[in-house]
Design goal:
Elements (H helix, E strand, L loop, with lengths): L6 H6 L3 E5 L7 H8 L5 E8 L5 E9 L2 H11 L3 E2 L2 E2 L1 E4 L9
Amino acid sequence: MWSDRDPSQRRSGQGNVFIKNLDPSIDHKALHDTFVQFGKILSCKIATDENGKTKGYGFVHFESADSAKQAIAKVNNKKLRNAVVYVGQFVKRQDRMQ
């Protein structure tokens, strides 16, 4: 899957969305196709283990924060394939509550 390698956009956190509880049948393309309707996607990734099996969560980085907010509002707590997903703003590990 294509991704934008501009570090300033990635590090800003603007437009970065976290999705969890993904159905195992959802791949990178399905995730991209689900979220592209909300705006331009800079990167889209599903976390996998060393065997390539999904870990059930992923990330979508939009060009704009407005696109991310729209995606969160429309997809959070909705059913994608056979699972109800959580979609929220990505929070860096060091910024999360302990």
